[in-house]
Specification:
Blueprint lengths: L1 H8 L45 H22 L1
Length: 77
C-alpha cells in the first residue's frame, strides 16, 4: 500500500515514473525466486533480510537504470 500511495503522488510534483517493463524477461522467471515488478526493480530478501540480490535481480536493476537514463536524455533533448 505504501508504494501505491507514493506512486500516485509523484505526478503531482512533476515527477515521471519509469518502471520495469515485462520486456525485461528476468522477472518472469520461475526457475528461482526473483524480485522485480512493473513498478520497479526489487529483491526478495527473505524473512531475515539476509538473502542477497541474484544476478537476475541485478540485471533488472541495470535495465531499469538504462531506462531512466534514456528517459532523462529525451527530456533534456
Amino acid at each position: 500500500m505504501t508504494l501505491f500511495s507514493i506512486i500516485a503522488n509523484l505526478p503531482h510534483f512533476g515527477m515521471i515514473i519509469v518502471g520495469l517493463p515485462y520486456s525485461q524477461g528476468g522477472q518472469m522467471s520461475v526457475a528461482e525466486i526473483v524480485g522485480g515488478a512493473p513498478y520497479g526493480a526489487t529483491t526478495v530478501a527473505g524473512g531475515d533480510g539476509l538473502r542477497e540480490p541474484t544476478e537476475t535481480d541485478l540485471a533488472g536493476e541495470r535495465h531499469q537504470g538504462e531506462l531512466v537514463a534514456c528517459a532523462a536524455a529525451k527530456l533534456i533533448g
